[in-house]
Amino acid sequence: MRAFVIEELGRFGVRDDVETLDCGPDEIRVAIKAAGVCRTDLSATDGKWPTKLPLVAGHEGSGVIVEVGANVTDRRVGQHVMIDSPACGQCYLCTHGAPTLCEKRDLSGTGVRFRLADGTPVQSMIGRGTWSQELIVHWTAGIVMPEGVPYEISSIIGCAVRTGTGQVINVARPEVGASALFFGGGGIGACAVMGARLSGCGVIAVVEPALPKHDALRAFGATHVITPEQVGDAIHDLTDGRGFDYVFENVGRPETIRAAWDATRIHGTTVVTGLGGTEGRVEFDLNELSVHAKTLIGNVGGDCLPQRDPARFAELYLLGKLDLDRLVTDRITMDDLPTALKALDTDPHVLRQVALFD
């Protein structure tokens, strides 16, 4: 079958000699119908997201179950599923309300799920590998979607929606009327804006240097869209100089994390979602960490519950509360994936690209 393989850093592309392993008794085989393109996928190609190689890329995806293992009773052939990370349900974090951070999750792709025709083992990105025509996952990683949700929409719920919308409604939990500022207006930032609107935030401001994104961000619910040079004026004009109640960083750079913290009011909350690798450092003096009484929260995956949130986001889409059709700015093929990765840095219009599979 065909799959997008990162063979080594900087060398990647679509191959047609990839096979899945056999479907185990607790696993399902899914024929992928759609897969999103996320900046994390780009990070896997250049080492910013550390992972073992070779690797089948992709972590946003959806499709239809074509095989179930002998022990699987809660999934059946023909069901439309979104691919999530499996949660063991037994580790400390799973049993303490954080299954998205399961201690057994495969962030570094150490679980072999694929092989080349010559027998070479191939890892799967974050235990998924959705840039493939088929994949094998534990049955708990196949989240059944409500009827009527298109594959291209369910595919992006697995990262863009859960990470962006989840960081607001699950992680920060702003009060109705609170002010919110977002650094970064890409796919995750746009979903975060929709989360702020769902939460009833008052001022919803986005810092986005790419001007072509500004109108779309307003359509998602932003009350103000500004460039980085205008942050100081926004703090003065929109918050009487005190700073925003909640500030979200979706870029992953030391300077934007620092700017997000500085834009947060005393006793406010800063949420950091952007992935910046292991080399970046952010400096704080000791007094501001204590005397300013701010809360700094890291976010991965929007603190979502697999059995609750993906289906909830899908229902919100069907109700017209999440405008995910607008979020998909480009529909591409598997062969377009290398170009799609470059577009993340070169095309200012891109929010989410989705590859549609035959």
Question: How would you describe this protein?
Answer:
This protein starts with a strand and ends with a strand. 27% of the residues lie in helices and 27% in strands. It folds into two domains: 3-144 and 323-356, Alpha-Beta Complex (Quinone Oxidoreductase, Chain A, domain 1), CATH 3.90.180; 163-300, Rossmann fold (3-Layer(aba) Sandwich). The protein has ten helices and 19 strands. It has helices at 39-46, 151-172, 187-199, 214-220, 231-239, 254-262, 286-291, 309-318, 324-327, 337-346, and strands at residues 3-8, 11-15, 18-20, 27-37, 55-56, 62-68, 80-83, 112-116, 121-124, 134-138, 142-144, 180-183, 204-207, 224-226, 244-249, 264-272, 295-298, 328-332, 352-356. Helix 2 (151-172) packs across helix 8 (309-318). Strands 4, 6, 7, 10, 11, 18 and 19 form a seven-stranded mixed β-sheet that branches. The protein is of the alpha/beta class and 358 residues long.
Task: Give the gist of this structure.
It contains ten helices and 19 strands.
Identify the quaternary structure here.
single chain
Query: Any idea what the CATH superfamily of the largest domain is called?
Result: Medium-chain alcohol dehydrogenases, catalytic domain
What percent of residues adopt helix (DSSP H or I)?
25-40%
Shape: globular
User: Strand portion, in percent?
Assistant: 25-35%
Radius of gyration: 20 Å
Assigned CATH architecture of the largest domain:
Alpha-Beta Complex
What structural class results from the helix and strand content? alpha/beta
Organism: Nocardioides humi
Pfam family, one: ADH_zinc_N
Family: Belongs to the zinc-containing alcohol dehydrogenase family.
Domain Enoyl reductase (ER): 10-351
